Amino acid sequence: MSQVFCKFPLYKVTRDLSAVAMGLSPAETVIVNARLVNVATREIEENAGVAVVKGRIAAVGDVRHCIGPETRVIDACGRYLAPGLIDGHIHIESSMLTPCEYARAVIPHGTTAIMPDPHEICNLLGIEGVKFMIEDSKRTPLKAMFTFPSCVPAVEDFEDTGAEITAEDVKQAMQWEEVVGLGEMMNFPGIQYGAEGPHAIVAETLKAGKTVTGHYPSEDARGLNAYLCSGAANCHESVTAEQALLKMRRGMLAFFREGSAWRDLKETANVLKENPTIDTRYASLCSDDTHPETLCSKGHMDHILRRAVEEGIDPLTAIQMTTLNVSANYHLDREMGIVAPGRVADLILIDDLKQFNVSLVLIDGEIVAENGRLLAEVEPPRYERAAVRVMNLDPVKGEDFRIACDKPVQTVRVIEVIGGKSVTRAKTADLTARDGLLHADPARDILKVGVFDRHHNSGRNSFGFVKGFGIGEGAMASTVSHDAHNLIVVGTNDEDMALAANTLIECGGGMAAVKDGKVLAVVPLPIAGLMSDRTAPEMAKVVAALDRAWHDIGCNLPSPFITMALLALACIPELRLTNRGLVDCVRFCFTDLFVGKTDPQN
Amino acid sequence: MSQVFCKFPLYKVTRDLSAVAMGLSPAETVIVNARLVNVATREIEENAGVAVVKGRIAAVGDVRHCIGPETRVIDACGRYLAPGLIDGHIHIESSMLTPCEYARAVIPHGTTAIMPDPHEICNLLGIEGVKFMIEDSKRTPLKAMFTFPSCVPAVEDFEDTGAEITAEDVKQAMQWEEVVGLGEMMNFPGIQYGAEGPHAIVAETLKAGKTVTGHYPSEDARGLNAYLCSGAANCHESVTAEQALLKMRRGMLAFFREGSAWRDLKETANVLKENPTIDTRYASLCSDDTHPETLCSKGHMDHILRRAVEEGIDPLTAIQMTTLNVSANYHLDREMGIVAPGRVADLILIDDLKQFNVSLVLIDGEIVAENGRLLAEVEPPRYERAAVRVMNLDPVKGEDFRIACDKPVQTVRVIEVIGGKSVTRAKTADLTARDGLLHADPARDILKVGVFDRHHNSGRNSFGFVKGFGIGEGAMASTVSHDAHNLIVVGTNDEDMALAANTLIECGGGMAAVKDGKVLAVVPLPIAGLMSDRTAPEMAKVVAALDRAWHDIGCNLPSPFITMALLALACIPELRLTNRGLVDCVRFCFTDLFVGKTDPQN
Q: Where does the Amidohydrolase-related domain lie (chains A, B) (predicted)?
């Protein structure tokens, strides 16, 4: 394993470890009187212990002979001792926290390693964005084992974006020791139909012997076979038990996902209920995307373990799913995910196997959290704020939002959003022009939407109409807008929309709600318009304030953030607005806002 | 994975594979109407199929759409379709066959990959011996994924041997693409007590990211912890269920061994009987050492599967043990050991899950055996016989075996062998001198034994007495004599002993039985005195003739071969004879043949 994920690589310390195991030199730390969660054999070993030296486990079982006068002895008092929890697929940016603050939030919950895919920031800052994430993650002991983004931009030629990742970039990145694999290969049609780009990108990963991570959101078994031919080792996109089971059967680690917005565990847990005797080594748990308030109120993998057990999964199986099954899938099982000699001493003590209260966390043999409190030292940031600021856009005016119309009544295309779902519906509506302009019609819940290129200040901005947000008066804006993360604004009137936009342009990005010329709430996300360097509790608080503001202006969608963040994502049906225009996401072509105007498809 | 173990590395053919999976281009081969042994989930999938192109699996499940006019369609007619069987720890030399002939013998039994440790020939020819094994193995499609010998010589300074392997050698060998790991690290005391040599050797393996294979034959849990600190990933030395279970619990793949002489499966299978609910991912099956007659009469991994099921192991679990569990342990599970898209098309059809009759074998998508008959092409040998001949020893005479004695009666140390066990007992006996010489005393089953340095013709030869072979008249000789493989001779009289020795010196090594000045039987092993280039059936025949000859001269030991082959192995208690003298294998020092003569320990 790379030296960056341990205190010492095993090959440098085998003699130190064996000396401790033999009782010839004392351990640095010993845990005694624990119930060992043995993920190798799926058993509890009573009255077990662990001896640690040089950041690694030297002995497991009866380890009293490893105690010397200087040894730190931890009495587990019968608590459960398990390997540190691993989140095998996660986008840190969704938490709106920096990697460092994310780590501070999750370590006390027992998470000791994550496999982040920084594809959000990569869309903005390219390789430099990934490097920022890697560097910032080094400020805490959490092992951030990066996967390098595979699909930037997510959809080509439909929008202006900040970066493009090529096979050559992937080839280079696979040499970085902080990179353990390729980020989710979202372009599954490209893999299925033999597109050169995505195949070249997976090829560079396979050539380097690293892990291709997957993204296959379909029921189609034929397509899954074709997708697996890319070498994709895991997938977090199963929303039904059938999807998850088929992946497991085909040797693909199926993540049962439980994120803040994607709550698939209830469904996917049925795999194990309906097939109680199957081998579960290809099942895992992951968060994918977690918002700050979830991290603060519910936790991280401990919360997902709790949920798994609620859904009827055996607790020992659930712990295997978040430890050994993940590390084995990434070929890291000789390093982590199991309490065994030679492995890194990433260990947690858990009070019970139902609530999963994590009372002690060790990483590389050091106590990093106790009773929910972070004890690890956090290094100061090493980045320049300016380097991660992406807001190349001049202030806007109300008149910039104008939609001219030379007819008294115009039929327009309207994007209809559906609460809690990522698909939109393509609708139409007749709008009456005033002063040669088309306006929002809040009474019919038809709002105006604008998307601004914030990468190049190109002036390639576009406007349309959206239905479903329910705002009575005001506007909301966000720079979290997958995957190009251009500035998106929705509102009832041009002046409020301009104010919302300018609020974000000024603070470097984030989310804002505006009404009657007043800013009701703003969540500044100065790092690429995606993340803040505030702490998780601080962010949870400002996000809660924004939530209240959304409701104040009349929005009654659940998680309207996410709905707005997907409004420009041209790879999901049916109708989207990017900064270049309205996209028919069924036919994959631009379409006109005005129905009937030079529209070859109609 | 190395390109040497597949037709094409996956990264070169992902597009070809996905095209077949999608039905856009036809498969080369399709198997339909099979019961798929799904080792990922431990289930049978009824009416399943597999589509193959470029040597790899493109699709699994319903694959009828992958059939084109040129596709070879194999109707499994309801037979079981499983991954090719893998033997994760094996010494080819024990079969007395070349790698090529070994492959010809095992492929029809469903073996598609082996992890050989060529440490026998390495003791004779060093790195060149390993290279010979690698080159010879390339003559057939069997995937010989070598581990590079770690302990040559096995015991230092007690005998003359042909080669020495250093950490620098290991460092070089780890760069060879045919080498997947380090051969069994037998020096477990060296690991436990921090010896520099063995730790440096495992360090070079770990640094290269390859697999350290283990050898831990003890019950001692403390010692196992210390041994595991070397990174050893697996071990084939468990002889009790307790030993095997402890290894599994500590994340070490425990091979349940069933070789020709080491029949540990009956005992080790109890792990699964006594713990029916444990996770079995760290359990496996291997042969370690198999003689030609076993290969011909019983088979290879198919035989061991049959034995496993006889011992009560669930058939699907047993198949997992010989496929996915092994490939995962070597981090080769993305390549083999599972029937899934992207993996190599190493596949077998089995008639049932009790007899395990293998009726069809494919390697890299090509049919290589059918109904027990090898169909694969075998390439001609590429080596010079002279290069692998190791017999640097002039012919001997009867008088060379003389043991002078100046007392009328002398108490001597006698090695007592025990049939079927590797340990010996240190005994003494009073011998009466005749003409100033000590002789064998067949009436008391006390025979003479001599060991000759065959590496350097140094004249460093030694003589002693052995009990337990039961030979009435005659002699037997062998150049298979672990681990230095010097020439060893046991007999009742010096003339027959000289004849037996000279028979082997002349033919380049092997095994011989002699009586009354006549050679009763000889098994020539011209390749390093260890192997023949004859076929397995031919070798089984000559070995059977030798067996009869042993019996003719009165030997009633089971497998006397093996007993004699271990007589010089100074790392096993209690008393051994190497070419340099008698070794007290409890105190690890030389001792004198004559009791009472300058013997500081007594």
A: 80-368
Cβ contact, residue pair B192, A18, below 8 Å: yes
Q: Catalogue the E-assigned strands of B272-417.
A: 283-286, 347-350, 358-363, 366-370, 373-374, 403-404, 409-417
B451: phi > 0 → left, psi -120 to 50 → alpha, else beta; which?
beta
Rounded to whole angstroms, how far apart are CA atoms A202 and A181?
Answer: 10
Coil, strand or helix at B454: coil
pTM: 0.95
CATH 2.30.40.10 residue window(s) in chain A: 3-81
Closest CA to B251 of A2, A65, A57: A57
Residue of A nearest to B41 (CA): A279
pLDDT of residue B458: 95
- Residue A379's Cα: distance from chain center in Å? 23
Closest CA to B256 of B320, B193, B194: B320
> What's the DSSP call for residue B188?
H
Q: Which of A24, A59, A222 sits opposite B21 (nearest CB)?
A: A222
pLDDT above 90 as % of chain A:
90
Mean pLDDT for chain B overall: 95
- For residues A237-255, b (16+ Cβ closer than 10 Å) or e, as one string? bbeebbbbbbbbbbbbbbb
Structure confidence at residue B2 (pLDDT): 57
CA angle B448, B449, B451 (to 5 degrees): 155
Which alpha helices (H) appear in B390-535, and where do they start and end? 494-507
Among the partner-chain residues B18, B38, B227, the one whose CB lies closest to the CB of A229 is B18
Alpha carbon distance B473, B327 (integer Å): 50
Write phi, then psi, for B258 (nearest 5 degrees).
-140, 85
B248 contacts on A by Cβ (under 8 Å): 40-41
This complex has an ipTM of 0.95
* Residue carrying the six token digits 């084109």: B68
The 10 Å Cβ neighbour count of residue A235 is 27
CA–CA gap between residue A590 and residue A580 (Å, rounded): 9
Q: What pLDDT was estimated at residue B139?
A: 95
Q: What is the CATH number of domain A82-340?
A: 3.20.20.140
Please state, in angstroms and rounded to a whole number, the distance separating the CA atoms of residues A151 and A131: 17
Which parts of A8-154 fold into alpha helices (H)? 10-21, 99-106, 119-125, 127-137
Q: Do B251 and A58 touch (CB under 8 A)?
A: no
> Which tokens sit at A45?
């070993």
Option in A59, A204, A249 nearest B40 (CB)? A249
Q: Which of A18, A206, A220, A253 to mutate to test the interface with B (most CBs of B within 10 A)?
A: A18
State the smallest CA–CA distance between residue B343 and chain A in angstroms: 8
Tell me how far apart the alpha carbons of residues A414 and B385 are, in angstroms, rounded to a whole number.
82
Contact indicator for A461, A451 with CB cutoff of 8 Å: yes
Q: What angle do CA B14, B17, B21 make, to 5 degrees?
A: 135
- Dihedrals φ, ψ of A220, to 5°? -70, 115
Q: Are A339 and A57 in contact (CB under 8 A)?
A: yes
User: CATH number of the domain at A3-81, please?
Assistant: 2.30.40.10
CA A182 to chain centre: 14
Q: Please give the Cα distance from A600 to A593 (Å, whole number).
A: 13
Residue of chain A whose Cα is closest to the Cα of B16:
A194
Sign of CA dihedral A217, A219, A225, A226: negative
- CA pair distance A116, A92, nearest whole angstrom: 6
**Residue A298 contacts by C-beta under 8 Å, 6 or more apart in sequence?**
none
Other C-beta atoms closer than 10 Å to the C-beta of B227 total 30
Chosen from A218, A281, A330 to mutate, greatest number of chain B CBs within 10 A = A281
* Structure tokens given for A591: 């379409």
Sign of CA dihedral A349, A350, A356, A359: negative
